[in-house]
Amino acid sequence: MAEASATEAESPGQWDGADDAAIATRALTKRYRGGQLAVDGLDLTVPAGSVFGFLGPNGSGKTTTIRMLMGLIEPTSGTARVLGRPMPRAARTVLPQVGALIEGPALYGFLSGRDNLLRYDAADPAADPRTRRERVGAALDRVGLAAAAGKRAKAYSLGMKQRLALAAALLQPRRLLVLDEPTNGLDPQGMREIRALVRELASDGTTVFLSSHLLDEIEQVCTHAAVMAQGRLISQGAVADLAAGARGRLVVTTPDAGEAARVLKEQGAGDVVVAEDRVTAEPPDRDLADLNAALVAAGVRVRGFGVERASLEDVFVALTGEGFDVAG
Amino acid sequence: MSRADTSRAGSPRAGSPRARVSRAEAPSAVRTPSPLWSFGLLRSELLITFRRWRTLALLGVLAAVPVLVGIAVKIETSDGASFGGGGGGGGAGPAFISQISNNGLFLVFTALAATLPFFLPMAIGVVAGDAVAGEANAGTLRYLLVAPAGRTRLLLTKYATVIAFCLAATLVVAVSALAVGALLFPVGELTTISGTRITYAEGLGRALLIALVVAASLVGVAALGLFVSTLTASGIAAMATTVGLLITVQILDQIPQLDALQPYFFSHYWLSFADLMREPVYWDDLVKNLGLQALYAAVFGSAAWARFTAKDITS
Do the interacting molecules here have an ipTM over 0.85? Predict the structure, then answer.
């Protein structure tokens, strides 16, 4: 179901317009008082029903964007619409339908996990106090904290705090979940559980906006992604399309690496790299079967021959022209 | 999440029954919240304020002041001499101290007069200064705001809670003094500052009225503290600034050269509550005091609101 709405939204030209988009920003810009341009003319469209990965190195403006979307920071210029309503003006009607995890958990250390959730729920004027205890219990259950609900939050581990913050985002049925680095501080089992939870929520029709620096995490759960660097949006679209944009590399495994490299160059492959028994190259624009035949004809003993699909990481590096370093 | 949820992840369409309900409700989005639900935040705020150790410690210190004063007076007068020789008798609060050994009820007035210049406003400064800045410091402010608590609603809730604390702190002093006074000294009819006699019951009424006026005298400091609290993301800095301002104003209020400014200091008419013990009550300074507190609440309340509703929350 998420797939269907996703394909509709991602066709070219649909990126602007998009009235039914869960999040749509137009030239969204934030310049902090010091003059630092944190977000620069952002045009972001998150299709309703998608699991949207928001990627970028630390300091690229992801968190500032999320804070503007949640009405915590006033944009310097440009507009942001969340669930079809302008932010921050419509915060009162929009935010009860949005669950958010922003820059890690923040809790009252002297309150128990359950009391923390009761407090956050009481802050929402659209939350029914008659069902409060029940909903808090269900949210604790959902993130696996039911057993530790009575302990003071001060004594929680980082992973438990992260789960509690996630539970706060799930106190109500939400149309949009904004999760900033949700698996920070979690062990591999916890990460798997969060991913499963995200998939489950998405299958229920909740749009999930997920920021992460873990590329494989985005690749595993997201239908769409956007890449930010230095305050600008570099690319956005369906994950499959993004990865298809970067070409895969030809990989030949052989004990005769030197000879193989020579033949590949001869056959028109570019950027040939030899590493022990692995030779990789940019594939030329012709049937790769001929290439393999040429290798065999030249007496190269081929163990493996194939094209490695580009990962999101390759895309990322290709787009930002850098690794995953902190932007200055 | 439970095991069951994890295992279900493989088949994304198999939502739990609970999740399916949420799906049916979510798009409708128009829940019809009752306006009364808004007060849930105030209740929660009061609960967490009065459950903190810090709050309880402040109240404990305040409760101890009348005990100390009571014991000191008891020791001083145990040889039958009357305390301080009954000198003064003017409008100043400490004049009450000479009457304690005759009537325990005067310990209430003495204790309030002793705590009002510093202990009470300091406690208010701590609670008010921490109100917004403490949440910003802990990061909980951003989660309250995306809940969404609403900036104006959150600020009003915070101010209402600080006012409630003013009242609680004053009552703690008064009740502690009343108990200690009744325990250590005789009680009964009492003499007003004007020399007339009133019954013990009427004296109790006056004591309650005085406690309310003292609590109201703190409304200005509370607004000032809340405003300072919106300026910073450090609870400690906000508390220190508020208490620092309090001390500064108290000192300036003692400098004769500044007498043109002094009527505008929030603490200037604080001790006017003693006028409630006159017969008839002398209202002039009392009204000036309450008017000044209302002015401070309006000015600094507006400033806090202007600041807080326009502030970028980056903590």
Answer: no
